[in-house]
Amino acid sequence: MLGSGALALTLSACGGDGNDDAGRSRIGPVDPGLADGGGNAELLNTLLGAEHQMVAAYTAGMPLLDGAALINAQHILEQEHEHIERLRALISGAGANPVGPLGSYDFNTPANQAEMLRELMRVERQGIAIYGELVPRIPDPQLRMLAASIATAEAEHDSLLLARLGRWPAPTAFVTGRS
Known about the structure:
The protein has 179 residues and is an all-alpha fold. It has helices at residues 4-13, 22-25, 40-61, 67-93, 113-134, 141-164. Helix 3 (40-61) packs antiparallel against helix 4. The longest helix is centred in the middle third of the chain and has 27 residues, at 67-93. The radius of gyration is 16 Å and the shape is globular. Mean pLDDT is 82; it is low at 1-28.
């Protein structure tokens, strides 16, 4: 079980304590027109699809969570929605159509909170792997920086979920999404 100091540390790692705009101000505005050239919009749409899947997982998982795990998941879900808003605006600004969520996703069927946290970790790690593969392929440096920032937030989410399971939140020196 984490003490209150560790909980504050893990919450601050996810972009603030939820009571300020610290997470929103780390990456400045990105010109929506940047998504237009070089296949940026297509790559951003793939990332948007991953974000939709994460939102679906957290939304589906809320009934199995309680206490600090529920509070953490709600905070993460807010950040996932912010990722979606930012990516949608960039894709739309490029004149492309942002992808929407799928009608259903292939999630495991957890029976309790620990299983749900592990399922959320699985989905986060899929997202991290997708970002890891696509970030280097984004031609525009500003968009690449934004996508890398979102990937970092996903790794922070994974770390927080590990901590909720009572595990060391930084088990490896490199985050690949494949472990």
